UniProtKB/TrEMBL annotation, chains A, B:
Keywords assigned: ATP-binding, Ligase, Nucleotide-binding, One-carbon metabolism
Residues given in the record as ATP binding sites: 53-60
Any one GO BP annotation for this protein: tetrahydrofolate interconversion
Catalytic reaction(s) noted: (6S)-5,6,7,8-tetrahydrofolate + formate + ATP = (6R)-10-formyltetrahydrofolate + ADP + phosphate
Keyword ATP-binding attached: yes
Its EC number(s): 6.3.4.3
GO MF: ATP binding; formate-tetrahydrofolate ligase activity
Designated name of the protein: Formate--tetrahydrofolate ligase
Lineage: Bacteria, Bacillati, Bacillota, Bacilli, Bacillales
Pathway: One-carbon metabolism; tetrahydrofolate interconversion
InterPro entries, sorted: Formate_THF_ligase, P-loop_NTPase
Length: 543, 543
């Protein structure tokens, strides 16, 4: 690893803008963006993917490898990525920082406490919860209905026992009511931090968050509770983007990591905009497949932040295509050209969808050793038929070298094709119409179904003045539909809208189409049991 | 503020041992102590106080001011202090970093997230809780009794609603049982971190923590749960001591801050021992008054760590002496020589107690503007009668200048009087005899009272092989007795032992003599409502 000061210097950031966190991590002061405001922005490229499968598609890996390759061919590039959550590291998955020759460094630090952003979000979230319950205990001047407290608590840990709890038991311990914990990445505070333009915007958004209803049905906000300023204080450092590097010393801004279902799943606006001032090309990613991640990136993040994406890279794998063509999980390593052909329908639809936003798109085929030459040729031929460039990516094994063609093709596309980006739907559509537009245009379903209670909530949100907000779809990532087993490119399904909730601070209406778990559990044998320090005090067993 | 690198250089720490957290905070690598192991230790001085009163005695303030003054008279001195908890900053109290000309800098940072140590402790604590509940959910191979889970959860926030809760409600959400949250500083993980000699010791202590009982009454430890290694990983950075500076640039190692009732209330052993290698004099403090803080410092911290304290400074104030002489809180500013005389009994006993440990002691009279010359003279005359040096300290108003006499007197004492430190009681005494010794010798009570259930627990701990552990008294800090209103120097009281609990990782038996609240609540108007960022992004309203 290079000292992070050297990485910062390589993109022209003076030391005065940096706060070091050890030798290899730092935060960038918000004044840098202000000082560079007259500098032109670089090109913004979204790396997204086909529907995710148990095999793993390597979207983060490809983003990192491609950023390395672009630098290798002389295009100054920064990766603007999400920061991982600590809790899941002790459950099943490894890190969220790429791997082998296309990974973020120092990966253990980034996956664990990093620069404390998630801890700060947890603190801010729980301060608000404590102040709400204290308000109830101290006389309840706002007449909050203890059965209608929307604001739960947050913890960056996989702990299913905290999903549904009763608090306030025992004499002098407050007002008894139901509550629960979500993992910190699912907190609206995380979404707010990621969508905020600056400190003032953060402060205003926090104040707008709806936390409860009164006995007479009025909304209570964090502003009413008097918590928004203190929360902003707790988030003062967390709002500053983090700078780290990849395995090849490519600069990476790693900042913010909201859930990709009940939130928009993109790294921070501040991080993205800072990167755009510092590089010719900025690669960023969005959660899950393009049906969720890219749609929200375009319709929520870019719309709110006034960002204009210049291109998109769709990551596919031969394995995931076969899986979408009906091959079961255990047989993905075997050649199966027929299933692959069938699975291409999934890719086709994502390509078509991205084009609906007016954004030029190319395909990256993330290479696995089990892929056959024939299989790769089949994918490339299909891309040719779609009129979309496709390149094989081998960044896991070879780092930037394995991404040179990909980088060159992207560069050519950025030079030749210009983006006519526009969101999919107008803010002026009603909430129901927005949902229907996404289901029809992106998921390609026949329509939506919702019960009277959900209809009433939608009407209430519109009456309260939230009808202009974009919608944030919470749906299974495995399928275009709301049913995880409908692989490939399903049609004629009806999406069941089970609930809608308001994230007034983040600025979207969450549309729940399934049972979304916002607090994961640990598996039978938690990964934690294998994680330890070795004799030299280095972490082993984390990945 | 000086850059922290400059402060570090001033005490001879090479940059390679430092991890910066911004410009003004850093962590010191554990290898420094190893590399300096042949260097002689400096002198260790405990700053303690008479029984605390609502007026505030300024123990931390005096420690900081005295460290500044010692440096001013040419004695290289480091203050080794506790790090504050974030939660209470949003409740009633201001910071825990001294104030005005005798404070730690950067005080806002230190009081809020600092270098993330408390967040790491919270994470480690809650990982263990999640793994225990996951064990129950995944088949409960250890046959843990869900009604006898001792390990609760932790949060660094004042939230009374979380004191007593029910977790695991709802289908698929684990096993329903009672639980609760304590504030992070009350976690045994904090005590363990503070008493650990090194990484290996930390790992072993974490494994020894008793977290539950099985159906057949056997103890279950963190080792059984398989959590100790992963917890050590989470605490990897938190174990490294933090270096900051005082308002005058005096180096301060601020590390660890356990509760002073259910834990021992002293800063970390690693921090103290590191400081002893770097300075001629190290000032450290312990929680509450000397009856709790000094006793535990001598009997738990120094005994476990093999530290040999060279002197003690007892902080008194005219106000606190009057309060102990019967003056009500609102009238402490009025001269009252009679009440002052009566209150001196409190000071006398603390001086006598410290001498019982074989440690030379002097008195620091922390000056308030309301003190009259006569009142100060009365205190000084009493000290002369006790044969103890007393100096007026005015470090709040004047910084080091206000502590010169104090510093010179301490220096003289360190040169002339040598410590014959020994703990109060032998490890070989039974648990009950240890408690009785403290009550008789330090509190000066007539004896203890305990019911059959507590007696049975004591016998059980002894049978389990924990009889050799020192005891950690949890008692009101306001009185020598277990009744907060018995001020001055009460006698003939009987201390009621309500419960005993085992902190096998920290290495002590906690003796509860009252109702100890381990999770504070917020007041009617939380301080949080006044805390905000100003236009420049600086924190205002925190103190």
């Amino acid at each position: 690893m290079k000292p992070i000061l050297e990485v910062a210097e390589s993109i022209g950031i003076a030391e005065k803008y940096l706060e070091l966190y050890g030798r290899y991590k730092c935060k960038i002061d918000l004044s840098l963006r202000e000082d560079l405001k007259n500098r032109p922005d670089g090109k913004l490229v979204l790396v997204t993917a086909m529907n995710p499968t148990p095999a793993g598609e390597g979207k983060t890996l490809t983003t990192i490898g491609l950023a390395q390759a672009l630098n290798a061919i002389g295009e100054p590039t920064i990766a603007a990525l999400r920061e991982p959550s600590l809790g899941p590291c002790f459950g099943m998955k490894g890190g969220a920082t790429g791997s082998n020759k296309a990974q973020l460094m120092p990966s253990e630090d980034i996956n664990l406490h990093f620069t404390g952003d998630l801890h700060a979000i947890t603190s801010a979230h729980n301060l608000l919860a404590a102040m709400i319950d204290n308000h109830l205990f101290q006389g309840n001047a706002l007449q909050i209905d203890s059965n209608r407290i929307l604001w739960k608590r947050a913890m960056d840990m996989n702990d299913r026992s905290l999903r549904q709890i009763v608090v306030g038991l025992g004499e002098g311990n407050g007002v008894v009511h139901e509550s629960g914990f979500m993992i910190t990445t699912a907190s609206e505070v995380m979404a707010v931090l990621c969508l905020s333009e600056n400190r003032r915007d953060l402060r205003e958004r926090l104040g707008r968050m709806v936390v409860a209803y009164t006995m007479s049905g009025e909304t209570v906000t964090a502003e009413h509770i008097g918590a928004a300023d203190a929360m902003t204080v707790l988030l003062k450092e967390a709002l500053k983007p983090n700078l780290v590097q990849t395995a090849e010393g490519t600069p990476a801004i790693v900042h913010g990591g909201p859930f990709a279902n009940i939130a928009h799943g993109c790294s921070s606006v501040i991080g993205t905009k800072t990167a755009l001032k510092l590089a010719d090309i900025v690669l960023t990613e969005a959660g899950f497949g393009a049906d969720l991640g890219a749609e929200k990136f375009f319709d929520i993040k870019c719309r709110q932040a006034g960002l204009k994406p210049d291109a998109a890279v769709l990551v596919v794998t031969v394995k995931a295509l076969k899986y979408n063509g009906g091959v079961p999980r255990g047989e993905l390593d075997k050649p199966n050209p027929e299933a692959l052909q069938a699975g291409l329908a999934n890719m086709n639809r994502h390509v078509d969808n991205i084009r609906k936003f007016g954004v030029p798109v190319m395909v990256a085929i993330n290479h696995f050793t089990s892929d056959t030459t024939e299989e790769i040729r089949i994918v490339q031929e299909q891309c040719a038929r779609l009129g979309v460039k496709a390149e094989l990516s081998d960044v896991w094994a070879r780092g930037s070298e394995g991404g040179i063609e990909l980088a060159e093709t992207l560069r050519t596309m950025l030079r030749r094709e210009s983006s006519r980006y526009a969101p999919l739907y107008s803010e002026r559509l009603g909430i129901r119409e927005k949902i229907e537009t996404i289901v029809r245009e992106i998921y390609r379903g026949a329509g939506i179904r919702l019960n009277a209670k959900v209809e009433a909530k939608i009407q209430e949100f519109e009456r309260q003045g939230f009808g202009h907000l974009p919608v944030c779809m919470a749906k299974t990532p495995s399928s275009f539909s709301d049913q995880p087993n409908l692989l490939g490119a399903p049609e004629n399904f009806v999406v069941q809208v089970r609930d809608v909730t308001l994230s007034a601070g983040a600025g979207f209406i969450v549309v729940l189409t399934g049972n979304i778990v916002t607090m994961p559990g640990l598996p039978k044998t938690p990964g934690a049991e294998q994680i330890q320090l070795d004799e030299q005090g280095e972490i082993v067993g984390l990945f």
